[in-house]
Amino acid sequence: MRNLLGPVLALVMMYGTGTAYAQNYNNLKPAVKAAAKKMNDALVKKDLKTFMATTHPKVIATTEGGADKLITDLSKQIESMESQGSKILSAWPGEASAIIDTAGELQCTIPQYMKMKLSNGVLTTQTTLISVSMDRGKTWYFVDATDKTLANWRTVFPNLSTQLTWRPAPEPKFTPKK
User: Fold this and answer.
1) Confidence check: pLDDT of 167 > 60
2) Which of 22, 50, 68, 177 would be 42's cystine partner, CB 3.0–4.6 Å?
3) Integer CA distances (angstroms), 16 to 12, 22, 55, 152, in order
4) Is 100 left (phi over 0), alpha (psi -120 to 50) or beta?
5) Cα dihedral 54→58→64→67 (10° resolution)
6) What is the C-alpha to C-alpha distance for residues 118 and 87, in angstroms, rounded to an integer?
7) β pairing state of 173-176 and 87-93
8) Whole-number Å distance between alpha carbons of 128 and 113
9) What is the sign, positive or negative, of the torsion defined by CA atoms of 140, 154, 51, 61?
10) pTM value?
11) What average pLDDT does range 105-131 have in this prediction?
């Protein structure tokens, strides 16, 4: 009996409540939200260099022309939108999902809301961002996940956890001009 007690106690002490090796990263949720807010604020202010700094590096690396081309294209899209009487009024993040540690990355999803002025009213949209940190939560990068399934995104980002989830984007809400 004595020979088994030592190893059993060692196992109980090692695994305890199951958290000895399963790190809880939910304390990083405010950092994810702050990074998403920084990205959203940059977009609203048309600070596209800061906005691009929050875009996942793989997206930039796989785009011909890289960050400069993406900034130029986004700037043209914003100019075109504004020439038609539309403008991004505000953008803000929701609350991050549980943070998953997988393949040396921290990953979660976070909803993103945007309010846009149109010529005939205001449109409010919701999308979902995939959030990835490759440096244990110091820096967060984002990819808009709404237009593809997890399986589709995993062809581009094979390290994405199969535990990430998001729902299809709800229908935008339109409020007509009064």
Assistant:
1) yes
2) 50
3) 5, 11, 39, 38
4) beta
5) 20
6) 7
7) unpaired
8) 9
9) positive
10) 0.82
11) 95
